[in-house]
Description:
With 64 residues, the chain is mainly alpha-helical. The protein has one domain (11-60). 45% of the residues lie in helices and 0% in strands. It has helices at residues 11-20, 36-54. The model has no long low-confidence stretch (mean pLDDT 80).
Amino acid sequence: MDAAVAxxxxxxxxxxxxxxxxxxxxxxxxxxxxDLAEVAVSRIALEHCAMHGAMLWMADLDQP
Length: 64
């Protein structure tokens, strides 16, 4: 028997299909829960970092 750990922030999107599929079994699931405000602040910070990484011209802007 092979053991595996799968981690995905999008698991909620397809967990139903995985549970219906008999190709493999799930022995346990860990579902972390965070405060909604903390999640929102974290998401905003990640989006800003991604935006600055994708738009290199922003690095040339004057800082306030």
